[in-house]
Write a structure and sequence with these properties.
By secondary structure, this protein is of the alpha+beta class. The chain has six helices and eight strands; from the N terminus they run αβββαββββαβααα. The chain is 36% helix and 27% strand. The strands form two sheets. It has a four-stranded antiparallel β-sheet with strand order 1-2-3-4, sandwiched between helices. It is elongated.
Length: 218
């Protein structure tokens, strides 16, 4: 009798375990779809609706800035030495406008910002003729001098250092150059800017001579 009772209890326990497992599976199978929560309108304490902030992408500026040199400058004053940084930046849009800026500040970032602002104030317009310059020219600044010559299509920019950056940001694609004199980046950049400023477009020369562009260029 005891054996039969124990067998019946074991069978009941097995049945209870199976029914519990089946019930769990049925609940998982019959999951109800979850309703999406509607965004509630937030109100401020005064009862006014809060404005939803939208992040709009700002249009990218056409101006390109390139840092040529950052040098540490010390100035001797009454109390000792005053440390500052000098930044040389070239600003251009690769569409015929370029400028060189130079500024000093106690921090590097501020010096670069001031140099960019200075470069945008001193922009010049470069007369570009078929991806190159109209005629050979030499520019000077201090002890530095830079010679520029027009080049045929496919030559590229034959220059280096600050001269190359000025020509690239001006939008010139083919040109020959030679730095004569001082190797200072500031002198080289200003000499290149002086040479580009002296360029005379063909249209101006043709109007002075009373000719058309076709007659001037044969």
């Amino acid at each position: 009798m005891k054996g039969k009772k124990s067998m019946d209890l074991e069978n009941k326990e097995e049945m209870n375990v199976e029914t519990a497992a089946d019930a769990v599976e049925e609940v998982k199978a019959e999951e109800l779809p979850v309703e999406e929560e509607k965004p509630s309108k937030r109100r401020s304490r005064g009862g006014k609706k809060q404005k939803i902030e939208t992040t709009e992408e700002k249009p990218q500026s056409e101006w390109i800035e390139r840092v040529v040199q950052i040098s540490r400058v010390t100035k001797v004053v009454k109390g000792g030495k005053k440390l500052s940084f000098r930044a040389i930046v070239i600003v251009g849009n690769k569409k015929g406008q370029v400028g060189v800026g130079c500024a000093k500040a106690a921090e590097v970032i501020i010096a670069i910002q001031k140099a960019i602002a200075d470069g945008r104030k001193n922009l010049i317009t470069v007369p570009i003729f078929k991806t190159t310059i109209p005629h050979p020219i030499t520019g000077r600044s201090g002890a530095g001098a830079v010679m520029l010559k027009p080049a045929s299509q496919g030559t590229g920019i034959i220059a280096g250092g600050a001269v190359r950056l000025v020509l690239e940001l001006a939008g010139i694609e083919n040109i020959l150059s030679k730095s004569l004199g001082s190797k200072s980046p500031l002198n080289a950049a200003n000499a290149t800017l002086d040479a580009l400023r002296k360029l005379t477009p063909f249209s101006e020369v043709a109007s002075k001579r009373g000719l058309t562009m076709a007659e001037l260029l044969n």
